[in-house]
Amino acid sequence: MLDKLKKYLIPIFLAIGIGFVFGLISFKKFEENINDIMTGESKKLVAFQVGVFNNLENANKKATTCNGLVINDQDMYRVYVAVVSDGEAKESVKKYYENKGIDYYIRNLEYDEEIYNEIKEYEALLMATSVEYYEEILKTMVNVYKEGENL
Fold first, then answer.
1. Which residues 6+ apart lie within 8 Å of 58 measured at CB?
2. How does DSSP classify residue 103?
3. Which of 54, 100, 107, 145 has the smallest C-beta neighbourhood within 10 Å, fewest atoms?
């Protein structure tokens, strides 16, 4: 009877142990993603881009008319009017530019944690203020991204 019991218990405990080890590895690997899912917060930044140009002069003209900033991206000049996280602020800014009749393209951005945190601070201000102050706050947020990108 003891031999029969060992025959079944050893594979069962071995399977539990292997499953536990793989579970720990997976949990450590995806811990940040799980936290984002549980809190509902995504750590993505997006830019509201209103143009891409080969010529800096044309990019500057577009930036002036839309109150945006020119971002040098290799051989291209991109005009951003807003940089926000992918969440409530993004939806609010979408409505703002749609009401103004400004066409835009939403572009995912690469960034570091410091830029993300600073953008989130301005986002809190953006969400707490009225639409009449959006333009200056959004331009400041783009500038934060631009300055952080040049470091």
1. 77
2. -
3. 54
User: Model pTM?
Assistant: 0.70
Amino acid letter at 115? I
Dig out the tokens for 58 from the structure: 């044309």
Q: Give helix 88-100 / helix 134-149 axis angle, nearest 10°.
A: 120
Residues 102 and 33 in one domain: no
Q: Which residues share a beta bridge with 49?
A: 80, 105
**The two structure tokens encoding residue 7:** 């025959």
Q: What is the pLDDT of residues 72-109, one digit of tens each?
A: 988 899 999 999 988 889 999 999 999 999 999 999 98
Q: Is the predicted pLDDT of residue 40 greater than 80, yes or no? A: no
For the chain, what is the domain count?
2
